[in-house]
Amino acid sequence: xxxxxxxxGEVMVPTAKNAVLPMLAAAILPEGEVTxxxxxxxxxxxxxxxxxxxLGCSVAWEGEDxxxxxxxxxxxxxxxxxxxxxxSSIFLLGPILAKMxxxxxxxxxxxxxxxxxxxxxxKGLRALGVRIMDEGGRLYCDGRxxxxxxxxxxxxxxxxxxxxxxxxxxxKGTTVIHNAAREPExxxxxxxxxxxxxxxxxxxxxxxxxxxxxxxxxxxxxxxPDRIAAGTLLCAGAMTGGSITLENASFYDLLPVTExxxxxxxxxxxxxxxxxxxxxQRLRSFxxxxxxxxxxxxxxxxxxxxxxxxxxxxxxxxxENVFENxxxxxxxxxxxxxxxxxxxxxxxxxxxxxxxxxxxxxxxLRGGAALVLxxxxxxxxxxxxxxxxxxxxxxxxxxxxxALGGRMERVQVHEHEQTEVHDVTAxxx
Length: 429
Ligand code: EPZ
Hints:
This protein folds into two domains: 8-14 and 225-426, UDP-n-acetylglucosamine1-carboxyvinyl-transferase, Chain (Alpha-beta prism); 17-221, Alpha-beta prism (UDP-n-acetylglucosamine1-carboxyvinyl-transferase, Chain), CATH 3.65.10. The protein contains 14 helices and 23 strands. It has helices at residues 17-26, 43-54, 80-85, 93-100, 119-127, 158-168, 184-195, 227-239, 255-263, 302-310, 330-335, 365-377, 388-391, 397-403; strands spanning 8-12, 31-36, 58-62, 65-69, 102-106, 131-135, 138-142, 150-152, 174-178, 200-201, 207-211, 217-221, 243-247, 267-271, 274-278, 288-290, 315-319, 339-343, 346-350, 359-361, 383-385, 412-413, 422-423.
């Protein structure tokens, strides 16, 4: 990609990856067909579609929509390879138990940003009467005595909250989730379950009540906009002195990000389903950014905001409280001229006037997005390896960036020194 262009124009924000993934899992719950509208064409969604198909569901893309028929659901064993292919397979545990009362999955394992334990998922399901035996990394779950119950999370885990919401949707009685996650995607999952005839209330607060119903029915549903994709695009505009308009964006869901961008000198405002940003010639640093569970600053926006801080005037401090290894992009940003010091969960960024292009490597999804942002702001050309990691969460990124006047394209790279061919679109590690 070639940096230095001022981004301007209007682009559409995709629907939220982190809303679509749990909804694909929940789509096995009802009697009847589910259509999820305007799904993002990203690798994580494709992986989830593969898993549902392997379990016996009939899943098909129809344009931008995904249609799921679960009548063929016949397996409760999640294949090992698929459990490892995508962490979100753990979201299927609750729905499979709700539907079949049995489930076998492997520990999804860690990823680039952390160990990603699932103890809270298992604690929540055990509170609903699920017996879980762990044998060599395979979890054998027996839900024949499942019942509604009280679940308390000592950390408001997004995935664990979603798993219990789905597991309890058809359990006789009322399940109460205490210290539930409050992310907008949780509220959207409540809306989806209720659109299928469920009775969930309280999502978005710390206490969610799931009143079990006999059965759920099919529905057609459009998930919320992707606030992380939207925030990433706002950062692209902010870092290039640009002026951009996002369509299909929720200003309210973006508040933590828009407040930070205003602190950096941007004008940001919303009108209906649009969010607009006008950037200053040069950003000011933000004093401190701490990632927290919602409604705190979203951890998924930490890397893109770090990239913005790299070119801002002044010193910014980033503290990553949610995941233990989410500074993977720092070394590559420094290769591009950034001045960042890391000490444990804190990174101190001394803004520089100019970054320069370099050959760098995406280490994780959001860290890779930060490198794209830095490449847009840097002078010269940047080559990003492992771009498949970015494809996990950003659909058609180069088309979106190009529509705003940025110069970004996929290239096949041939190393001169007789090493393997680095395909910029190489598969995830
Ligand atoms: C979801 O992951 C998102 N993924 C993540 O987005 C997001 O960063 C995260 O929520 C926080 O908002 C999807 O929705 C598919 P958590 P999840 O359970 O559910 C610890 C992206 O880039 N924890 O709230 O895994 C965990 O280790 C991805 O789009 C336990 O200790 O997040 C972490 O430190 C990355 N035990 C913290 O809680 C558990 O059983 C937050 O995890 C579960 C989690």
